[in-house]
C-alpha cells in the first residue's frame, strides 16, 4: 500500500524517500515557489527520486516549470511498487491538484485511466505514447530516440580501433529501444560503410548479469565500443566494457553521472532531455490550457542530444560531425532511420 502524505520540514537531499511519501518545497532546499497558484504533483516510476535518471531529471523539470509559471514548489510521490501507481496518482487527485506528471512508460495505463476520469486535471506522461482517441487533458512527452542513437553511432564509429562496435538492447518489442539502436547502426554505417555492428536483444531490462554476458560475447568477437539500451541490464553491459578496458556508451541521461562504477569507460551517452521536456510542458499548459496527444521532443526543439565526450581525446573532426548531424536533423534533411 502507498504511504500517507508527508512533508519533510528539514529534508536532507542525501535521504531517500519511501513509497507514497510527499515532500513539498523543502524537498530541495532551494526549490522556489509561491504560496498560491496551480498545484503540481509528480508520481515517479519505481526506484529512488535521486536516481540520476528519469525520476530525478523529470522532477527537476517539474520544479523548473513551477518556478516559471509562478506556482508553488511541486510535491512528489516516490513509487515503491508498480501496484501503487494508481493509488499514488489518486492521492494528488483527491487533494485537488491541477497538474500531475507521471514518469515512465509503465505508469501510462494508469495515467490514461485517471485522465479519462478527471478531464479538468492536466496530465503529462514522460516517455508515454498516448494513442488515439487521446484525452484532451493527457499529453505524452515522447522523444525521437533514433536521433540520439544516431549521434551515439557517430561517436562509436569514430573511436573504434577494431572496426567492430556493438549494442545491447533490453527488449525487441519496445520501439524506443529499437529506434535508438537503428539510429546507432545507420550512423555507424554512414561513417564507415565496412564497419561491423553487433546487436543483441537480451529481452530483459532488469538482468545485469545477462547484459554483462551479452557484452562479453561481443567483446570476445573483437567489439571495442558497446552502446547499452537496456536499463539495469545495460549497466551489466557497461560493467563488462569497463572490465575489458573498452569504451561504453550510455543511454537516456548522462550515465557518466548515474553509473559511477562505469565512469572510467563511459565515453558519452545518447540523451533524452527530460528536464527541459517537463519544464516546457508545464509552460505550454499555463500558456495554452489543457494539452493532449503527444509532444515530440527532438532535434528541432533541443529534446535530444549526446553527453560531453569523456575519458578520451576526441578524434579530429568528431564534434563537427556531431554538430552537422544535429543541424541536418533539425533541418529535416537527415532521417536517422534511413
Task: Please give the structural blueprint.
Blueprint: E1 22-23, E2 40-43, H1 54-69, E3 75-77, H2 85-94, E4 99-103, H3 108-117, E5 122-126, E6 138-143, H4 145-159, E7 164-169, H5 175-191, E8 196-201, H6 208-220, E9 225-229, H7 231-243, E10 247-252, H8 255-258, E11 266-272, H9 274-288, E12 293-297, E13 304-306, H10 318-331
Parallel strand pairs: 2-3, 2-4, 4-5, 5-6, 6-12, 7-8, 7-9, 9-10, 10-11
Antiparallel strand pairs: 1-3, 11-13
Helix pairs in contact: 1-9, 4-5, 4-10, 6-7
Helical content class: 25-40%
List unreliable stretches of 5+ residues.
Answer: 1-21, 23-34
Radius of gyration: 20 Å
Assign the CATH architecture of the largest domain: 3-Layer(aba) Sandwich
Taken from the alpha-carbon principal axes, the silhouette is: globular
* Span of the ends, CA to CA: 47 Å
Structural class designation:
alpha/beta
SSE string: EEHEHEHEEHEHEHEHEHEHEEH
Amino acid at each position: 500500500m502507498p504511504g500517507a502524505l508527508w512533508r519533510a520540514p528539514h529534508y536532507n537531499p542525501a535521504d531517500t524517500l519511501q513509497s507514497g511519501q510527499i515532500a513539498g518545497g523543502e524537498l530541495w532546499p532551494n526549490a522556489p515557489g509561491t504560496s498560491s497558484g496551480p498545484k503540481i504533483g509528480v508520481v515517479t516510476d519505481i526506484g529512488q527520486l535521486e536516481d540520476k535518471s528519469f525520476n530525478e531529471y523529470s522532477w527537476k523539470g517539474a520544479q523548473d516549470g513551477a518556478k516559471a509559471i509562478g506556482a508553488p514548489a511541486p510535491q512528489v510521490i516516490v513509487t515503491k511498487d508498480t501496484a501503487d501507481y494508481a493509488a499514488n496518482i489518486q492521492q494528488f487527485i483527491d487533494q485537488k491538484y491541477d497538474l500531475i506528471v507521471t514518469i515512465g512508460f509503465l505508469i501510462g495505463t494508469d495515467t490514461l485511466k485517471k485522465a479519462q476520469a478527471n478531464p479538468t486535471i492536466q496530465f503529462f506522461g514522460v516517455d508515454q505514447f498516448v494513442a488515439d482517441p487521446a484525452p484532451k487533458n493527457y499529453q505524452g512527452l515522447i522523444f525521437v530516440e533514433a536521433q540520439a542513437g544516431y549521434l551515439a553511432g557517430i561517436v562509436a564509429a569514430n573511436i573504434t580501433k577494431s572496426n567492430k562496435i556493438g549494442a545491447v538492447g533490453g527488449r525487441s518489442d519496445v520501439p524506443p529501444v529499437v529506434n535508438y539502436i537503428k539510429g546507432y547502426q545507420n550512423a555507424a554505417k554512414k561513417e564507415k560503410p565496412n564497419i561491423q555492428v553487433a546487436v543483441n536483444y537480451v529481452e530483459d531490462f532488469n538482468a545485469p548479469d545477462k547484459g554483462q554476458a551479452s557484452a562479453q560475447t561481443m567483446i570476445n568477437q573483437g567489439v571495442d565500443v558497446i552502446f547499452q539500451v537496456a536499463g539495469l541490464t545495460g549497466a551489466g553491459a557497461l560493467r563488462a566494457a569497463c572490465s575489458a578496458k573498452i569504451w561504453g556508451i550510455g543511454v537516456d541521461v548522462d550515465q557518466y553521472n548515474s553509473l559511477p562504477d562505469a565512469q572510467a569507460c563511459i565515453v558519452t551517452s545518447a540523451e533524452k532531455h527530460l528536464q527541459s521536456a517537463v519544464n516546457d510542458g508545464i509552460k505550454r499548459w499555463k500558456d495554452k490550457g489543457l494539452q493532449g496527444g503527444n509532444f515530440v521532443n527532438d532535434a528541432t526543439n533541443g529534446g535530444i542530444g549526446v553527453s560531453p565526450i569523456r575519458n578520451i581525446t576526441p578524434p579530429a573532426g568528431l564534434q563537427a560531425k556531431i554538430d552537422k548531424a544535429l543541424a541536418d536533423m533539425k533541418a529535416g534533411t537527415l532521417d536517422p532511420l534511413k
